[in-house]
Design a protein that fits this description.
Length: 258
Amino acid sequence: MSAPDAGGESTRDREPVLRVRGLRKAYGERLVLDDVDLDVHAGDVVCLIGSSGSGKSTLLRCLDLLEPVDDGTIHLDGVEITDPAVDERAVRRRIGMVFQAYNLFPHLTVLENCTLAPRHAHGVRRREARDRALGLLERFGLAGHADQHPDRLSGGQQQRAAVVRALCTRPELLLLDEITAALDPELVGEVLDIVRDLAAGGTTMVLATHEMSFAREVATTVCFLEGGRILEQGPPARMFSDPTHERTRSFLKRVLAP
């Protein structure tokens, strides 16, 4: 249970920032998401774990409306964003997404990458967008690389820049899709440090990850996906020490084996 705020109200008593009900998604005959339910409250860090192909990335892409859903609903701050009448671009302005492949524009500098969306999608003035980006780049150790192009940065630096770019739009919800998967092992830590910092600052996040020790450390909720379904979810202390579902136990035994 979350601690009460200054007014005495628990954050768990409030409407969730994100509410997913009965979400289904198929590619042809292949069912990728099957009746997914999920609540995410303000300040939550929800870690999606499971084998490759279990539906983690597809779920994140559906939450950002990058993939149309076949059935079910997604509500953001109480408004159904899966309603066909919803302006998808307006919804995406409220959600930040970071991919494992960085997706930085190679012809733009790091600073230009970070100011593009605030200026052109959010109407932020050039000076304000620049100041906001430079502040975040400094916070995450990239101030000295602001005027460089992405190909001059290491993989870890590029991924940190991608996170900063997402944060520059001040999203209500941040989605992270296996952001360490493409990194060399020695670069993983520097990217995870950013997520730790964001979690400590109260950023609301849903992330797919294979980093089990990291999920145990930062998550408020861990969801185990199998065959497009959330088979089990709960606080990390219980999920990693005493999972109730046999498939969860089998998966964790395999990935946590020394």
